[in-house]
Amino acid sequence: MLTINNVTKHYDKTEALKHVSITIPGGACYGLVGPNGAGKSTLIKMITSIIRDYKGKIEFNEKRITDKTKQKLGYVPQDIILEEDISAFSNLQLFGRLYNLKGNSLNQRIKEVLALIGLSERGKDKVFAFSGGMKRRLNIGCALMHNPDLIIMDEPTVGIDPQSRKYIFKMIEDLKTAGKTVIYASHYMEEVEKLCDYVAFLDRGEMIENGAISELLQQYAVPSIYVKGSGIPQDKLEQYGTVSQEDGAFILYTEKALEAMEHIISYCRENRLDVERMELVHPRLEDVFFRLTGSNLRD
Amino acid sequence: MNAIMIVELKKHLQDKGLAFWMLILPILFTVLFISVFTTGDNEVVNQEIIQSIVPGYIVMFVFFIMISMVQVFIKDRNRGMTARLASTPLKSYYYLLGKWLPFTFIVIIQIVVLFLFGKVVYDVSLGQPIILLILSLFITFTVTAIGLAMALTVNTENMGIALTQIIALGGAMLSGLWMPLEMMPDFMQTIAHFLPQYWAHQSFQDAMAGTTQVPELLQTLVVLFAIGAAAFIIAIIRYPYFLKRAVK
Ligand SMILES: Nc1ncnc2c1ncn2[C@@H]1O[C@H](COP(=O)(O)OP(=O)(O)OP(=O)(O)O)[C@@H](O)[C@H]1O
Ligand SMILES: [Mg+2]
């Protein structure tokens, strides 16, 4: 379990984090979501003790982060940070050694990790010749060498193709199955929704909400209906809730979605209006964020 | 620490620029200057000149390691490797040692190769090889310590390169590595006594000729060590600031 207790961090002028408290249960996959500059990376660097001058307390299994606790912690930085002039194998070797792996078990583990990140064939090649996606995967691999209990990933899927993304998702699923705790910072709500059990929303240094994703969806996301057709009057829909327009269709937000659907269908029948498409929209994390901040994560 | 050291050595071995600065360029300079300055017919004088030029260029060119040191540290800092390593159990002074030690190996190898080159090609005498080796170890310490202090202090690579040029070339000129000190004005001879290059050059020449006086040797070693230690202390003081800037 990781507890982040009332942490505050200033850079020279900017206040990057303000009184943030989060508890991350062991074995969970925890999403950190927020727009650019929200403070995700800052928080992660504090957890990994790259940043040490901050106010507040961070504890892993009730202990402050020390060199000993760092042994249980794997960090995937937002940028690709590798030794480009040596091979993938040598990079993994470097990180393995830093975490005190040696000899046979080190070599064994390098092979395992190469397989895990799908680079078994390319182990001997120098990293500078790798594609962006391959480097991303190696970037992750380096953090997994010592088989950590807590893996912290800072936007590991930025700028990669769907193939590599799938690979990375699979890796995270495997880590979850193995009972590891994963912290996953991302801009991509869909990813967090798919992978994580919990989420914390950060915005301008403040933690605006956190909790189990399923509960947040229930609490904040208003069910909505997508209606597309000709001649359906907006004010008719507004009887049931709030309406927004999207590419010539209406989105109707209403707590009583099914009931509203029935009414709208019969109304359209009676008035011989053509309904092209109507469906219940599954509430998304994106909507929760919108409800909380009044803005979309990406515009 | 070993982990860092091994990677650094691997990278240095591939670094052609390093080989150029550290070995090829000094050899070219040595050959060029010896051919320019030994046009006279007097064999004895010529050999004397060679005995001065060979160690002179060694002392001058060991300083160029500082460029590589600055590059390695600034690069590590800017691309976030220093920060990434701070998330591992690696102690920060082992990071420093792991980066620094390979440079000391390189400089030692450089000095040995350049002396052997002088021996094989110009038949310089290496009268007291053990003393030469001890001197080499001390000058290596001095140079790499200054390099470390500089690498942890400067903000940009260009600044490091500029400073290295000033220290290496300025120091070489003022210490009589290019022309005998006796030919320079008095105040410059006084300045020379504050420069590690001067002491190293004098003692190298004595040891090559086999005329080392123990008090003089000790004096040189103390000067080299003191300058190196001072630089090392600066490096240690600068290190926290370097780490702070490394956290992007
Ligand atoms: N080294 C630094 N010096 C000064 N300010 C910084 C530094 N690093 C981050 N900041 C500032 O702190 C705030 C939070 O930045 P942080 O990198 O933590 O955000 P983020 O949520 O990771 O953003 P992104 O999604 O763009 O990665 C920003 O306003 C940023 O400008
Ligand atoms: Mg970030």
Under CATH, the topology of the largest domain in chain A can be stated as Rossmann fold
Main sheet attributes: strand count, strand direction, barrel closure of chain A = 6 strands, mixed
Rg of chain B (C-alpha, Å): 19 Å
Summarize model confidence as the mean pLDDT of chain A.
92
Please provide the count of β strands of chain B. Answer: 0
How many helices of chain B? The count is 11
- Total domain modules of chain A: 2
What's the number of helices of chain A?
11
Mind telling me the CATH superfamily name of the largest domain in chain A?
P-loop containing nucleotide triphosphate hydrolases
CATH architectural designation of the largest domain in chain A = 3-Layer(aba) Sandwich
Estimate what percentage of residues of chain A fall within beta strands.
25-35%
Q: Name the chain pair with the biggest interface and residue counts per chain.
A: A-B, 25 and 21 residues
Query: How many angstroms does the end-to-end distance of chain A come to?
Result: 35 Å
GO molecular function (chain A): ATP binding; ATP hydrolysis activity
Protein name (chain A): ABC transporter ATP-binding protein
Domain ABC transporter (chain A): 2-229
Keywords (chain A): ATP-binding, Nucleotide-binding
Entry summary:
The complex is a heterodimer of chains A (299) and B (248). Chain A is an alpha/beta fold and 299 residues long.
Explain what this protein looks like in three dimensions.
Chain A: This is ABC transporter ATP-binding protein. Chain A: GO terms for molecular function: ATP binding; ATP hydrolysis activity. Chain A: Residues 2-229 form the ABC transporter domain. The complex is a heterodimer of chains A (299) and B (248). Chain A has 299 residues and is of the alpha/beta class. Chain A folds into two domains: 2-217, Rossmann fold (3-Layer(aba) Sandwich), CATH 3.40.50.300; 222-282, Alpha-Beta Plaits (2-Layer Sandwich). In chain A, 36% of the residues lie in helices and 28% in strands. In chain A, the strands form three sheets. Chain A has a six-stranded mixed sheet with strand order 6-7-8-3-9-10, sandwiched between helices. In chain A, 40% of the residues are buried. Chain B has one domain. Chain B has helices at residues 2-14, 16-37, 43-62, 65-78, 81-86, 92-122, 129-153, 157-174, 186-192, 196-209, 214-246. The longest helix of chain B is centred in the C-terminal third of the chain and has 33 residues, at 214-246. Chain B is elongated, with a radius of gyration of 19 Å. The mean pLDDT of chain B is 93. The interface between A and B is medium-sized, with 25 and 21 residues. The complex binds adenosine-5'-triphosphate and magnesium ion. Magnesium ion is lined by residues 40-41, 78, 154 of chain A.
